[in-house]
């Protein structure tokens, strides 16, 4: 069985992302394939994702990548 080759962003995001809050699946940081400098986090199992985070004109690209990770890891404490 052939294993999918991970992108650099997916490799960097491993260990930084908590499991999916809905199904417990593995989440991945992904770059939008048509929009420039746009990132999001998506569950590999159920497909739920964060909103797109696009780099602003004078913003560093790391901020656009970190924003969806922070949104994904945000959990309501019970």
Tell me what you see in this structure.
The chain has 78 residues and is α+β, with helices and mostly antiparallel strands. The mean pLDDT is 82. The protein has 2 helices and 3 strands. Strands 1-2-3 form a 3-stranded antiparallel beta sheet. The radius of gyration is 13 Å and the shape is globular. It has helices at 8-13, 61-73; strands at residues 27-31, 38-43, 53-54. The chain has one domain (8-73). Strand 1 and strand 2 form a beta hairpin.
Whole-Å distance between the termini?
41 Å
SS strand fraction: 15-25%
State the shape. globular
Q: How many domains make up the coordinates?
A: 1
β-strand number: 3
Helix content: 10-25%
Largest beta-sheet details: 3 strands, antiparallel
Order of helices and strands: HEEEH
| Average pLDDT reading | 82
Low-confidence stretches: none
Radius of gyration: 13 Å
- Given the helix and strand composition, which structural class is it? alpha+beta
Secondary structure tally, helices: 2
Q: Strands of the largest sheet, in order across it?
A: 1-2-3
Kindly list the characteristics that best describe this protein.
3 strands, single chain, 17% strand, 2 helices, alpha+beta, 78 residues
């Amino acid at each position: 069985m052939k294993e999918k080759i991970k992108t650099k962003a997916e490799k960097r995001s491993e260990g930084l992302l908590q499991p999916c809050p809905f199904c417990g699946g593995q989440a991945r940081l992904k770059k939008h394939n048509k929009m420039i400098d746009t990132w999001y986090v998506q569950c590999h199992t159920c497909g739920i994702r964060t909103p797109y985070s696009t780099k602003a004109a004078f913003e560093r690209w790391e901020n656009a990548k970190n924003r969806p990770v922070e949104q994904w890891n945000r959990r309501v404490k019970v």
